[in-house]
Structure formats: structure tokens, C-alpha cells
Design a protein that fits this description.
The protein is built from five helices and nine strands, in the order H-E-E-H-E-H-E-E-E-E-H-E-H-E. It is of the alpha/beta class. It binds adenosine monophosphate. Adenosine monophosphate binds next to strand 2, strand 7 and helix 4.
Length: 177
């Protein structure tokens, strides 16, 4: 009998040289074609996240939204989006961070979190950790407490864990590659 982790890993496909030469893109969309498996996955991931007694889940645009929303529903807490600059209406706060080539900017709505919030940050992939680290700093700049990172998968060889580990929050990654 296969474990849940084995069944999930089988439905995460490697796509070589996408979106650019040299990158092995992890395609998670095949996983979402299996609704029973996604339900099991959400139950399993949320049971670990619940131990942090979170009051909000913040998800990263865009693939972080896919599991972020059902996780927030299962945890019975608000679902909040971090998006690329210029996508969110109303008052926002933002931060910029460097990518391998150039810069990226992300934003969150100003009134989305309160300083008493205990926040989980969710994304699909932990790669170099640059994106999650910038998002963690954005969350902390609102005064809220980041209690845990949640990722569907971690690319171990990129050592993103070391960068985000400096934020003093737990790190949950369901599948490791
Ligand atoms: P990083 O900032 O390097 O940790 O990259 C994390 C972000 O880039 C996540 O939002 C992922 O969706 C995306 N990402 C990075 N590497 C991959 C990959 N190999 N396959 C799919 N998505 C990736």
C-alpha cells in the first residue's frame, strides 16, 4: 500500500527546461485532477498546521492559492492573498526582493491582518526561499506573528530552508525532492 506522500509525489510531474532552459518545473496540476487525493492531502496538511493555533492563512500568488484556500477552509480561518505588485485594490503594503535575474515586488492589503494574528504562510514550492522570505517579512511588517511556513513541496538541493529558517517560524513541507 502506497503512502499519501508517495501517491502525491507520483502526481507532481517534472517538466524539463520550463519556463526556461535548465529549470525542472514541478507541475502540480495533475494532482488537482484527483479530488479524493486532494481532500486527503488537505486533511493531512491542515492537521499539522492546526497545532500552531493559527488565526489566518496567507497564500502566495498564484499556485499558492490552489491549496491555500482549502487549507484555510479546513482550518476555519481567513484566507488572505499576497499578490504581485499592482494586482490588489485599496491600500496595500509591499516589498521588493531580488531574483536570480532582476527584482520582484509583492503586496498585501493593509487591513488584511491584525497585530494579534498568528499567521501561516503557504506556497506550492520552497525553492531558493527568496519569495517566502520576502513574504515573511511583509507579514511581519504588519505586526502579525508568522507562526509557520507551509509548502506542498521542498526542493532540498536549493537549501531554501536555511534562508527562511531565520524567521523563527516552523517549516512544514509535505513532499521533499
Ligand atoms: P523561490 O523564491 O526560489 O523559493 O521560488 C519559489 C517560487 O517560485 C514559488 O512560488 C514557486 O511557485 C516557484 N518555483 C520555483 N522553482 C520552481 C520549480 N522548480 N517548479 C515550480 N515552481 C517553482
Amino acid at each position: 500500500m502506497q503512502t499519501l506522500q508517495e501517491r502525491v509525489r507520483e502526481l507532481i510531474l517534472d517538466v524539463p527546461n520550463f519556463p526556461i532552459e535548465g529549470i525542472i518545473f514541478k507541475d502540480i496540476l495533475p494532482l488537482f485532477r484527483n479530488s479524493e487525493l486532494v481532500k486527503e492531502l488537505v486533511l493531512e496538511m491542515s492537521s499539522e498546521l492546526r497545532t500552531h493555533n493559527p488565526s489566518a492563512l496567507v497564500a502566495m500568488e498564484s499556485r499558492g492559492f490552489l491549496l491555500g484556500m482549502p487549507l484555510a477552509l479546513e482550518l476555519n480561518i481567513p484566507f488572505i492573498c499576497i499578490r504581485k505588485k499592482g494586482k490588489l485594490p485599496g491600500e496595500v503594503i509591499g516589498t521588493s526582493y531580488s531574483l536570480e535575474y532582476g527584482n520582484a515586488e509583492i503586496e498585501i492589503q493593509k487591513n488584511a491582518l491584525a497585530s494579534a494574528d498568528r499567521v501561516i504562510l503557504h506556497d506550492d514550492v520552497l525553492a531558493t526561499g527568496g519569495t517566502a522570505n520576502a513574504a515573511a517579512q511583509l507579514i511581519q511588517s504588519t505586526g502579525a506573528e508568522l507562526v509557520a511556513f507551509s509548502f506542498l513541496m521542498e526542493l532540498n538541493f536549493l537549501q531554501g530552508r536555511e534562508i527562511i529558517g531565520l524567521n523563527n517560524a516552523a517549516i512544514h513541507t509535505f513532499a521533499k525532492f
